[in-house]
Design goal:
This is Phospholipase B-like. The chain is built from nine helices and seven strands; from the N terminus they run ααααααββαβββααββ. It has helices at about 5-15, 40-55, 60-80, 95-100, 110-125, 130-150, 185-200, 230-240, 245-260, and strands at about 150-155, 170, 205-210, 210-215, 215-225, 260-280, 280-300. Helix 2 crosses helix 6, helix 3 crosses helix 5 (about 110-125) and helix 7 runs antiparallel to helix 9.
């Protein structure tokens, strides 16, 4: 990502080293930890960080980084205890972390732990509901713009210490999304974006209801099954004043703004979801651990507004 500052990269890449070492070198566990694509993890964490910096949430980003490190330190024992039945040894394998240049973010549980810490630290500085809404929309707008243009994601760690030599860890793919004011076009664009997120590893699947048009408003419901930061979302919705990332919903909000609509949504989390589908004349029932359900209402604006809330 062009223009990434070294301070930001070091803050994320050093996150594991800030945590207390385990009592034993090997945690005796039986379950493998689920993984997520490094490109996805890095993009979500970096975009959140960059939004903190551009918004001016903290006047000094060193203060943010310090509070972030303290949040990780204070919450790590709880994190480790919660997943004691999973193998977390790779988080302490320095050689493997340096070789992969991942900083541990491909561990889905650890990624969610980092994501949770980010939004708790942000919440301490952004206390008003309207300001939290605007900040969240900024994060979504930046992710949406990244989807439209595509990006080459650089590694957090450069062994020579020179930013220009940072190797690529992968491509955040570009998407040409359908745009327009017709409900049919909006429905198509919404499905394109959610399929993009599914294909890149953000969720296992999704469903979107038909778009119902009433005057200048359009309503629909989306279901996103097993998003990668589910644990962080659940925790933040319960104990952070409901201030949580909601990346997929915020991306859709930015898309609707790009099409000339303001939008609001109400969301909830559901567990143990069964989805029925038909394939080759067979009824297929797919079970998911959880789903984020969002009820959207989009209202046509008299003039199109920019997708970036700070523009």
């Amino acid at each position: 990502m062009p223009g990434i500052r070294l301070e930001r990269r070091r803050a994320l890449s050093a996150a594991v080293s800030l945590l207390p070492a385990p009592a034993e070198a090997i945690l005796r566990t039986t379950k493998e930890t689920p993984e997520l694509p490094q490109v996805l993890a890095v993009m979500l964490l970096r975009t959140t960080y960059d939004s903190v910096e551009s918004w001016g949430v903290y006047s000094d980003m060193a203060d943010y980084q310090k509070k972030f490190a303290v949040q990780l330190r204070d919450g790590f024992e709880s994190f480790r205890g919660r997943y004691e039945n999973y193998d977390l040894t790779d988080l302490y394998n320095t050689s493997k972390l340096l070789e992969s240049r991942s900083g541990g973010v491909t561990n889905r549980f650890y990624f969610s732990f980092l994501n949770d810490a980010q939004w708790r630290v942000i919440a301490r500085a952004i206390r008003r509901g309207p300001d939290r809404e605007r900040f969240s929309q900024l994060v979504g707008s930046r992710l949406y713009q990244s989807i439209l243009r595509g990006e080459d994601i650089k590694s957090d760690v450069d062994m020579q210490g020179q930013e220009a030599n940072l190797p690529s860890i992968g491509r955040w793919p570009q998407l040409a999304v359908s745009k327009g004011s017709d409900p049919t076009v909006l429905s198509s664009g919404t499905r394109q974006l959610l399929k993009y997120l599914k294909d890149i590893g953000y969720c296992k699947d999704f469903q979107v209801t038909d778009f119902a048009s009433t005057g200048d408003a359009v309503k629909f419901v989306s279901f996103v099954f097993d998003p990668v930061n589910l644990d962080a979302t659940v925790s933040l919705m319960r104990s952070n004043g409901g201030f949580a990332p909601r990346y997929d919903q915020r991306i859709l909000q930015a898309y609707f703004a790009d099409c000339g609509f303001s939008s609001t949504f109400e969301d909830t989390l559901a567990e143990s979801i069964e989805v029925t589908s038909t394939s080759s004349r067979q009824v297929i029932i797919t079970k998911y651990d959880s789903a984020a359900m969002s009820r959207f209402r989009c209202t046509k604006l008299h003039r199109q507004r920019p997708a970036d809330p700070l523009a």
